[in-house]
Design a protein that fits this description.
The chain has four helices and no strands. With 64 residues, the protein is mainly α. The longest helix has 15 residues.
Length: 64
């Protein structure tokens, strides 16, 4: 995944959650994806929300 050079945003995250191995071929990850578009949208919205939490912002700034 690190070597994929993917810029993670809502679009690429949706593609990954749909078919992980299609977006990142050769990955050893054994995740089949989330087939339901509404479930993917909800998951992405949740991840976006928690990423904006002070705890995540503090952690992200300390790793830069």
């Amino acid at each position: 995944m690190k070597n994929s050079k993917i810029r993670w945003d809502e679009r690429t995250l949706d593609l990954f959650l749909t078919k992980p191995l299609k977006l990142v071929p050769g990955s050893s990850m054994t995740y089949d994806g989330v087939a339901n578009p509404e479930d993917r949208a909800n998951l992405i919205a949740y991840l976006k929300h928690v990423n904006e939490a002070p705890e995540c912002s503090k952690q992200a700034s300390s790793t830069r």
